[in-house]
Design a protein that fits this description.
The complex is a heterodimer of chains A (678) and B (267). Chain A has 678 residues and is of the alpha/beta class. Chain A folds into four domains: 47 residues, N-terminal domain of TfIIb, CATH 2.20.25.90; 246 residues, 3-Layer(aba) Sandwich (Rossmann fold), CATH 3.40.50; 175 residues, Dimethylsulfoxide Reductase, domain 2; 112 residues, Barwin-like endoglucanases. Chain A contains 25 helices and 29 strands. In chain A, helix 3 crosses helix 22, helix 9 runs parallel beside helix 15 and helix 12 crosses helix 13. By secondary structure, chain B is α/β, with parallel strands linked by helices. Chain B folds into two domains: 107 residues; 118 residues, no CATH class. The longest helix of chain B is centred in the last third of the chain and has 16 residues. Classes of the chains: A alpha/beta (678), B alpha/beta (267). Chains A and B meet through strand 1, strand 2, strand 3, helix 1 and helix 7 of A and strand 2 and helix 2 of B.
Amino acid sequence: MSVRHVLTTCPYCGTGCNFFLQVVDGRLTSVVPCKTDEISLGRLCIKGYNAHAFVQHADRLMHPMIREGGQLRNASWDQALDKIVRKLKAIKEKHGPDSIAMLASAKCTNEENYLFQKLARAVIGTNNVDHCARLCHASTVTGLLHSFGSGAMTNTIPEFDNADCIFVTGSNTLEAHPIIGSRMLRAKEKGAKIIVVDPRDTPLSRISHLYLSQRPGTDIAWINGMVKVIIDEGLVNEGFVKTRTTAFEELKEAVKDYTPEKVERTTGIPKEKLIEAARIYAKADKAMLAYAMGITQHSNGTDIVKGLANLAMVAGHIGKESTGVNPLRGQCNVQGACDSGGLPNLYPGYQRVDDEAVRAKFEKAWGVSLPAKPGLTLTSAINEAASGRLKAMVIFGENVMISDPDLNHVEEAVKKLEFLVVSDIFLTETAQLADVVLPAACYAEKDGTFTNTDRAIRVLRKAVDAPGEARADWVIACDLGRKFGSNGFGFSSPAKIMAEMTTVTPIFGGISYEKIDSKVVRWPCPAKDHPGTRILHTQKFTRGLGLFAPVQHAPPAEVVSEEYPFILTTGRNLFQYHTGTMTRRSPKLEREAPEPYVEINRGDAKRLGIGDGERVMVSSRRGSITLKARVTERIIPGTVFIPFHYAEAAANRLTNAALDPISKIPEFKVCAAKVAKA
Amino acid sequence: MNDLGKKLARLAFEERGADFLLAMREEHGNVAPAMVSKGEDVGDVRLEVPYQLVTILENIYPWISKGKIAIITRRCDEKALAELAKRKYVDDKRIIKIGLACTEEQIERCRCEDPVPSHVDVGEPHAAVKGDELSARLAKMSQEDRLAFWVGQYKKCNKCFGCTLTCPVCFCDDDCVLEERTFVAEPSIPPGLSFHMVRSYHMIDKCIECGECERACPAEIPLLTMRKLLAKDMKEVFKFAPGDEKTVSPLNTTLEGELMGDECDEC
């Protein structure tokens, strides 16, 4: 009889709560909160408490599969891996290495992502490696890199406790990052003012001091409006602007026309509320700005992020305790998948592939010559597949057939591929289309690390064995590398992979398994004796001076029309997670939110004769889905909301794949739609 | 193994004949619950972090078909075990209690009026705290203000169900009717007062005021205060307090002439 409590990291959002998996004789029985964990403080959300439920589910993939005669059939590991190597070699030979793309994964560990990008770059010879950060915070990385020189959360989760003002926009924090949300509640109890800007009424907006509801797609207008109020009312932190920033005059010029009256006309936010929000934020001693997909998922997402950086710098709320610009990352290791180089233009540690000195360093470390040209982004790869130029994709733990915009287009593209490999824990909608399916171990079945949203390296510890023949993705990547004939994949453990990664990744330079086993360490951690960094940009910005960016409001890529009079916006709910592969197999979570729905304002519903719970058809220029109406006051008139978790009525059949020109993030948050009784 | 670990190993395995010991120890810079078999290294035991070990025992108990389990028991754990044994969720004869006296700090945090276990094996006994400051403050408020206070608190609930999952005397777990649609409407966050109120009343003859629900609550709703207020009513109305194996809950007794089981056709 053996009972173990294995300390590990939650596989859901980017908060990075640690908890214990309770294991009785190899059976996962429950999740026990870790009371001494600095991040979670021994509290969990409903997803965390149910994080054991899908692990030993009967649907888990147990054996590799190869498509034969249109059907997926069980195969041995050798057969599956040999087929992958043979096919990819042939495609590379015929069409060149850039005809192959690899998707790394925000659900896999840092060590695994390091290997995925190494496999793409050093073995296949292409920079075509990306992952779903492209769909969530790509514009944060580009925007904040421009303004500050570093694209990550500037401050840390525990600091929310002590802020005087918490300004949240485009983040449904209590549903999408519940334990960060609970820190905000805590700050509120201690007297902090909470300001929420969101087109939807959220659990957080309901307890906020000030709630501003903007029309989707008008963010730069209200952000510039707030900056103008701060300038006009003499609330600028002059000292900070003078000593720490540059291009303030350009900013002043850029915002001069954003009067509260004009902003009200554009955004629908009453001018008094805008002015009050600006005053509270600027006057606060310690103000933390937090945001998520509501800001980033726009065709001008990079500019909106720069706008928020302007706002924080004008008020001087950065570089100190309980301040900063804090993008809340949505997946357990989306921060880490970026840190580890799962990006087409960046090596691990945000080092550019087109920087010759950097490339030379990696060529020396890996003993191969590397491609200089930045690779395809996830969104561009889909387009290239559709046009027939991309021939093969190797996908680790991503489900593009639900998560990407304009799914009809994605499906067409994926089906056009000559060869598709998917490694996953369940037979996802994407895996169903694959030529080779590899069964992977999930978070509870392997060692490794995740980087959470506040840059802390969180440890995963193996609690149970993977089912059947399933293998950890780092093992699969090593197997593939070896079968390709590379000698850079002889790793016997994730610790050894991390040891290599730290030698080429300065921000991880001082990380070792020994160090992070008992301590929370946040990057940058450049040296062995370095304790890690809690707050970024304390003395100077990573890029030197903070750069004000003169950004301007522009309408979304798609605006409403007579035929499509509604704005459709998409997002998550508290109980389901992303494409639902894990949560929909967790009985308690599925019970809470078992079916797709569209939120529609009471007035709109009445006008269209739609009752609560009735079935409706929602259509955009790209497709239609049928689902239940939730008639509510939660959403402003003229806008409808659909959570994107449900394959049976996938919101992404409707969304627009219009891309932000810089970050290539799609505009998930705005498209034109119509609603009719089904 | 630290000195405390050695002491507990001796107490549990040598002196009292246990086959397992359920305690807390240091692991990876944190404090973890640990179930140790006889002969295994107990490790560096740390008792200052209030894990609700009875809840953990309850989770694993169905899988442990034989052997005696020693468990670190504070006074509230002792009472929780009494409630479990009374309802035959655990066999008293298989449980060996190792009494832990709470620290002053813990007593303060739980506003605990009954902090010393019947037999102290570890820790120094400290005096009880008289009364709960928030209860006193609420008592002075008008009924409307009191209601507004609780409505405001419960509005922060984010439906993690941590209060039920971590509770040592909330034993229905997978079949909890409280989490069903009747009490917790699907689209609603927060779940509405019915969930919290029904839960409060449902626990009224079992709650041993350990405070674990309050510690687990991400929204920091003062759940322990609510429990204490209800416990006070229970004492006044029924002269009953949970935590004694010999007493029977007044809610389990029937009144004269009351219809039993299938005699009742009202529902």
